[in-house]
Design a protein that fits this description.
This protein has 134 residues and is mostly helical. 81% of the residues lie in helices and 0% in strands. The chain contains 6 helices and no strands. α1 packs antiparallel against α3, α1 packs across α5 and α2 crosses α3. The chain is elongated.
Length: 134
């Protein structure tokens, strides 16, 4: 029973932890837009997008979806978007070292928990479901 009681807190903590990783990365990108575009031009090899478009899209994803994930609104969709984003980040940066790859694998696993298990009872999704979708 104690573990059942802790489950919603663990779900919330997991969402907050992984959301903070992407949120902080987005904040870094907006601190120096010229540097961000330069990184997408010379370092990251995002397929199918121009560097400026990739930088804008990446920054938007990292600033919008972590907030939704953290509060648990559209949490499964947010986890799915960030999971795909995380995967693209790994394949787009060929210079990523072994530790960086392990970090991305870890974040991907945390996102899969929310994607497959749901955001838990401490989330706006749960509140909305209980309140309006009986």
């Amino acid at each position: 029973r104690g573990l059942d009681f802790m489950s919603p807190l663990i779900d919330l903590g997991l969402r907050l932890w992984v959301a903070s990783v992407f949120w902080n990365s987005g904040l870094t990108k907006i601190q120096s837009w010229d540097t961000t575009v330069a990184l997408f031009t010379h370092e990251y090899q995002v397929p199918l997008l121009a560097p400026a478009a990739a930088a804008l899209l990446a920054t938007g994803v990292e600033l919008a979806f972590p907030v939704l994930l953290a509060v648990g609104l559209g949490a499964r969709l947010s986890a799915a978007v960030l999971f795909v984003f995380n995967y693209v980040a790994v394949i787009s940066y060929p210079e990523l070292n072994e530790v960086g790859v392990k970090d991305h694998v870890y974040w991907g696993m945390l996102l899969l928990v929310t994607l497959l298990h749901g955001p838990g009872r401490i989330s706006l999704d749960h509140f909305i479901r209980r309140r309006w979708m009986r």
